[in-house]
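User: quick one, fold this
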Amino acid sequence: MIPLLTLHYLPKIEWFAHWMKSETVMLEQFDNYQKSSLRNRTIINAANGSMTLSIPLKGGRGVRLPYNQVEICYENNWQHQHWLSITSAYGSSPFFDHYADYLKPFYEKHYPRLYDFNHALLLVLLRLLKTKSAIAKTSSFEQQPIAINDLRASIHASSAIQPKEKYIQVFSEKHGFNPNVSVIDLLFNEGPNTGNYLRALTE
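Assistant:
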């Protein structure tokens, strides 16, 4: 069945593992924004352990709007802060210099809406992963979609796929292996092997 996913900010490794094994993936467009979700948050490995990066929103955490109408707040310079954190965490990784220029523009340009920012970022990540999966989008919200593998609620801040094989992370000697992170951790450390690693997770 086609997997149905909620679009996250720099989605986690397990999110992309579901994507890479499917010929077509469906993205939810019409759900309501939910606070404390990964729609505006991502997790990276940093010098002091797991770090959560959050995109501030107009209306704050209590915003009650359809996800595709939620607007990003630029009152503080969160883009500079996020890029500084990503650079500090992965600047010494084997493939940071290879991929950084693809991601940096997202921390310079203003996107009014969160969904549009996440979607544009997703398209770049998919290109870097060299995936040919087709993207479908919901036309309306369905609580219990038929003939769809509904994964909208299954991937969250504490969930993670436990891999059969671990890859070397920048701070693994200090903190051990952490599978519960954004796909950029895998991309910066594994480079062109990222797609193969993701496919192997669900074999």
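User: anything notable?
Assistant: The longest strand covers residues 41-46.
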